[in-house]
Backbone:
């Protein structure tokens, strides 16, 4: 009975953590759900393409090296594919955008943030990234120019100009653009913690072993204590 | 098994030179423990486990961590880069770092439950006053260590949390600016701050080890309290610590490690409670996060601080809310220890636990007028609890205490 209470208290604290995980970010609108699978190589490679073709025009991901694109099995590019991507950059170089700080400041007023840790670094994570990509709208008040109004950005005025050209797209392109937004969200979620799949895989064994150990020690405890009357 | 070991020639050799047999007998195999301890008595050994885990993982992290606020490409710093190197390039660096980051929260969780146990069952009362006081010293050093450690990744919340807390010392009359500058190593949080916090973050756990030694020693002089809070004299009420409590603690450790491992491997950020979202953004002294809050284990005291308009009174209240814990054994005058036999105290202390959780919630959330009032009322109850304790025996009708167990 008393044990049950203790366990309940511990699990209540644990649940408290999960229940707030779906908290929306400060943009006002309810975040849309990103369909991502960080174990899906095809999606991650498609996301990588969106990243290199679109995002890297301005943004870097300095903690992801070109060698990482080969060595992380989730992406697993061949040496040839990586050589093509990196040009004359070193294999050990991070994925650095060609845009200089001066150019960025002149064009957008600020230097675009590095995207290595953008998913854990924003409330809503991958959902926020997906929503942001597909959240460019005409300002209902007509104050913010087109391309700078985003329903999900805190304060709605974003310096980043509509990277996927969402605002003016035809209905026929919707599906393709949404897929690109999903894919790039998946890629960014993956690179934020490139050992996450390995971590979860090992975690199953660790937690499984500890459950077994707990069970064994519990039976041993009962056995040792069986003569104690209380 | 121990008996077998103690019969070997090797053990006899060691024993002649150390008196090991007497120590093992007095501290383990013949150390008397009440036989009715419930599972709330497991948190002491769990706290010790967490201390060891934090030190071991910390030692490995220091092999790769670099305490430097020197700027690197993209608005990052050498310190932030070294943490990411641990997470990405060092073999199993991610495991060590998540164990350490989650470990800090788990350490506080078990210590708070350990303290709550002590308050509920009156374990702080005569003759265990000093045991409790040493425990409060441990809590304060832990909070200091956690605060220093939180600066090290040099993320936004590291930077701004340290800014807010070090500025508090500015409220001290006359000496305020001097103390703040001494702590910060300059006029604003910067590279000197990072270096001294790193030094202190390594020092404090060593102090903890020494003081925890004192805590365990004091315990082994006065022995464990029990859920009934009565003095036990009869031999049949006691059982030797080994094997009974070693196996019970081992079971507790395995159970706890399962939960700990689940969080480390599957949810290390714990929805921003254990590793805050803003700390994935590199520190930027030109951009203040929308909402600055300490990690959950410090938020109750943060709410007490924020409950007062005057900064000085807020700082004094926050300091007082921790200092008053030292006085608990002397404020609580009832001859009965356990809340089981003290109906009024039982309600008061359970309300106190809920009160601390509410304080924590208020401190973690963005401030609103409602939460401010809730926080102020909770702060009032926090102090009222301690102030009311000395008057409790005057009207509280305690239930009859059992003769034995």
Residues:
């Amino acid at each position: 009975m008393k044990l049950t209470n203790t366990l309940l208290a511990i699990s209540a604290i644990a649940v408290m953590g999960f229940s707030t995980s779906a908290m929306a970010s400060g943009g006002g609108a309810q975040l849309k759900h990103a369909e991502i699978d960080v174990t899906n190589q095809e999606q991650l490679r498609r996301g990588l393409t969106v990243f290199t073709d679109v995002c890297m025009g301005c943004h870097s991901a300095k903690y992801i090296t070109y060698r990482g694109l080969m060595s992380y099995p989730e992406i697993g590019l061949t040496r040839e594919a990586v050589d093509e991507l990196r040009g004359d950059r070193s294999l050990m170089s991070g994925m650095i955008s060609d845009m200089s700080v001066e150019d960025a400041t002149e064009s957008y007023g600020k230097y675009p943030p590095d995207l290595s840790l953008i998913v854990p670094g924003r409330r809503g994570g991958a959902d926020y990234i997906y929503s942001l990509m597909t959240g460019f709208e005409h300002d209902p008040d007509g104050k913010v120019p087109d391309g700078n109004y985003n329903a999900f950005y805190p304060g709605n005025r974003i310096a980043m100009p509509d990277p996927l050209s969402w605002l003016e797209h035809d209905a026929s392109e919707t599906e393709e653009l949404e897929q690109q937004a999903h894919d790039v969200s998946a890629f960014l979620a993956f690179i934020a913690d490139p050992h996450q799949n390995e971590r979860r895989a090992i975690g199953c064994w660790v937690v499984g072993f500890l459950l077994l150990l707990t069970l064994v020690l519990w039976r041993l405890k009962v056995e040792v204590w069986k003569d104690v009357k209380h | 098994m121990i008996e077998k070991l103690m019969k070997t020639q090797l053990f006899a050799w060691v024993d002649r030179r150390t008196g090991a047999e007497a120590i093992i007998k007095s501290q383990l195999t013949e150390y008397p423990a009440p036989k009715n301890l419930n599972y709330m008595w497991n948190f002491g050994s769990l706290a010790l486990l967490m201390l060891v885990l934090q030190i071991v993982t910390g030692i490995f992290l220091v092999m790769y961590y670099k305490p430097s606020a020197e700027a690197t490409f993209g608005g990052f710093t050498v310190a932030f880069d070294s943490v990411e190197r641990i997470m990405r390039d060092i073999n199993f660096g991610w495991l060590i770092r998540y164990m350490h980051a989650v470990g800090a929260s788990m350490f506080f969780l078990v210590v708070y439950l350990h303290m709550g146990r002590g308050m509920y069952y009156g374990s702080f009362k005569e003759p265990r006053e000093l045991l409790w006081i040493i425990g409060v010293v441990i809590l304060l050093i832990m909070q200091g260590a956690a605060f220093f450690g939180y600066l090290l990744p040099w993320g936004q919340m590291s930077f701004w949390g340290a800014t807010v807390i070090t500025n508090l010392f500015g409220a001290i009359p006359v000496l305020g600016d001097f103390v703040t500058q001494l702590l910060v190593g300059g006029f604003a949080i910067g590279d000197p701050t990072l270096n001294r916090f790193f030094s202190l973050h390594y020092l404090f756990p060593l102090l903890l080890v020494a003081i925890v030694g004192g805590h365990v020693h004091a315990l082994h002089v006065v022995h464990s309290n029990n859920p009934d809070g009565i003095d036990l004299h009869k031999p049949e009420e006691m059982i030797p610590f080994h094997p009974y409590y070693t196996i019970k603690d081992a079971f507790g450790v395995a159970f706890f490690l399962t939960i700990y491992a689940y969080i480390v491997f599957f949810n290390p950020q714990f929805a921003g409670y254990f590793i805050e979202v803003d700390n994935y953004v590199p520190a930027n002294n030109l951009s203040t996060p929308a909402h600055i809050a300490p990690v959950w284990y410090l938020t109750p005291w943060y709410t007490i601080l924020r409950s007062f308009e005057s900064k000085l009174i807020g700082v004094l209240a926050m300091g007082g809310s921790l200092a008053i814990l030292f006085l608990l054994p002397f404020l609580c005058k009832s001859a009965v220890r356990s809340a089981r036999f003290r109906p009024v105290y039982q309600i008061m202390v359970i309300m106190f636990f809920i009160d601390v959780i509410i304080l924590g919630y208020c401190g973690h959330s963005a401030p609103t007028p409602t939460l401010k009032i809730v926080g102020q009322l909770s702060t009032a109850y926090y102090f009222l609890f301690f102030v009311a304790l000395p008057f409790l025996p005057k009207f509280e009708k305690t239930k009859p205490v059992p003769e034995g167990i």
